[in-house]
Amino acid sequence: MKAYDINSKRHILEELIDNALLDSVKWVANRCTSQKPQEPDYMSALSTKFVKDLFNVLVAVFPYYDFSVLGVYCHQKPIVDIKQAKKTELGDILFVYADRKLKGEIVLNSLLLQAKVSSDPCLRVHQSERHQLELYKNWPQFTYCRAGNLNGKKRNILPKTINDGAQYLLIDDNSFTNGLYFRKGMFPMGCAIPDDILCINNSLSSELIDLLKLKSGRTFDSNPHTTEDEWSKMIWDLLKISTLKYSKRKNAQLKSFSRINECSHFCTEGMRDMTLLDEALGNYINIEDISDENCGVSVVLIESRLRSEKV
Q1: DSSP secondary structure letters along the chain
Q2: What's the predicted TM-score (pTM) here?
Q3: What are the domain boundaries of the chain?
Q4: From first to last of its 311 residues, what are the pLDDT tens digits of the chain?
């Protein structure tokens, strides 16, 4: 999308995405009757309920564009080994934006988030979770574990430092502020740069808008077969394995559903052709004997294409 188009609608866009996120939080809170929602429940809300609402927002605000928004729910896998005492999750949810140009070019952006429920906008990383922080701060070489076809494969992300493509997502655990009212300057989810003390620096709605502008997140290469960039390889890895299995989350009362189905995919008429997830599947699509370990992070895939040049 053009930055000018996004900037001209930013105020209303951010407000509508804020409301969609709040509705998703209330949606999952109403389903978690036996206990308070946990991180996996919020991921299920973002990758199912929020997907439809986000699609409706984008279509309403940007009528000159075609959109596809697709959600895939997974949790707790893949695990990676960074040669510490504990293996760590690679992340909880991956937001991917595909900007499809009229002449066929595609620009890809990514935002990988590790979710933490917190009662405070600042959260000290517990000693038992510092292996996750080490991954996001220094990106040591890692080996996939419990990741099906990826098991044993190594990735070596450069540079060895914090980047905007991998952040923490802090989720307000207060059902009152989340579900009953919404005051200016308050939001149920915010992004934090990896650090010993995680402090929200941006609302999730604002971060997603910056993802569309390519101002936040980390871009990745469009050809997984020829790229030499390890970040690009990792993102394509996650897209591939996140499409292969079925998923359920009992606490949020979500029954088993196909990870690629109409219930989690919404698109305008002009975007009914192949999605980026279809491209990610590649040779995997015909594999029948899929391991139970072929699970990945939750994915929200946003794709856009300008219908025609405005005059």
Answers
A1: --HHHHHHTHHHHHHHHHHHHHHHHHHHHHH--SS---HHHHHHHHHTHHHHHHHHHHHHH-TTEEEEEEEE---S--EEE-SSSS-EE--SEEEEEEEE-TTS-EEEEEEEEEEEEESSSEEEPPGGGHHHHHHHHH---EEEES-GGGTT-EE--SSSS--TTEEEEEEE--HHHHHT---TT--SEEEE-SSSEEEEEEEHHHHHHHHHHTSSSEEE-S-TTT---HHHHHHHHHHHHTTSSEEEEGGGTEEEEESSSGGGEEE-GGG-S--HHHHHHGGGGG-----TT----EEEEEEEEESS---
A2: 0.91
A3: 3-306
A4: 999 999 999 999 999 999 999 999 989 888 888 888 899 999 999 999 999 999 999 999 999 999 999 998 887 678 999 999 899 999 999 999 999 988 889 999 999 999 999 888 899 999 999 999 999 999 999 999 988 788 999 999 999 999 999 999 999 887 555 443 444 557 789 999 999 999 999 999 999 999 999 999 999 999 998 999 999 999 999 988 877 654 455 566 666 555 544 348 899 998 887 688 777 766 444 444 445 555 678 999 999 999 875 43
Question: Which amino acid appears at position 9 of this protein?
Answer: K
Joined tokens for residue 15: 């407000």
